[in-house]
Design brief:
Structural Genomics Hypothetical 15.5 Kd Protein In mrcA-pckA Intergenic Region, Chain A, ten-stranded mixed sheet, 27% strand
Amino acid sequence: MGKPAAASWRRGYGPLGLSDGTVEKRFRTFDVLMNESGMRLDEFLAYKMGRFSRSQASHCIKSGAVSIEPYRQTKPGLRVRFGDRVSISQTMVGDVPQYEDVVLLFENEDFWCFDKPAGMTVHPTANIYHNTMTRYVEVVLGRKPYVVHRLDKETSGAFLMAKDPEVSRCLGEMFLTHSVQKQYEAIVYNARNSYFPGSRRHIEIPLGLAGVVLPHMTMGAGHLPAQTEVCCDDISGHFARLNLGLHSGRQHQIRVHLALTGTPILGDKLYFFGEQFYKDYLDGKAVEKFLPHRHLLHARRIAFEWRGVLCVIEAPTPMLFEEVFRGSCPTAMFPTPYASLYKSD
């Protein structure tokens, strides 16, 4: 199935916001709870907004975009109190919808399966509202979205969205009980010759939160069971093209497992380039140029039984994968602490 018509949303938006030339703002308000009393204002905002660093919060506070009730002059180090109400006004520059890039792969009376483009989030985040799959369903399809599972922002591929809460609950349980088969494709850095065509590997490294610079985002070795099956399709120079299957669904599981075993995914700004690089990138600081612009991980296929019928849905692999793999697209690779955490079998 092809792309839905996108004219309805394109009439309202330009490159940076509304069609009249203004940039859209997003207003959010947070009440300070008892257990949050005493936190610094920048820390409070970073905690509340998610994927929002203290330096980003500090910048917003200093720019005058943050207010507090009862009124006090705001500064990053201000201590919030129980009962305070903190408001933030964000300019949504760069929150450009990719609606025309979304492809409908399959639809029935219960759910949709889309080919989610890289760069589009599933839910709104601290800095993104429009360029999300939930907003796409609301704006383009005119329906209420019910999220079943998630894909990372830069991961493309097959993505399910339910049409009602009961279907969302049922499909969600199927993902939790591993009744949905998920197959991914990745291009990795294979400098140690860990993979050769036809080779297979079972990665079983328990995972957990392990970040230092980004403690609530970065995953590493931990205590939560996680298993990934890897099969190598082909190699080219220092690159390997891998097929991957999951026996569990931990946050960033494939990306972390591949990095911890010495073959990080190309373009992964967090697990290949490192936490400090990714934080600087998020904060808008000058960083080393990197290519490709996204990490090369794609959800290629999902399969599950629904109402007695086997559903097998595939999302074509983006051309970028082949271009990088064959060397027709340049790459920029530099050291990362994760790639060095090689663990032998």
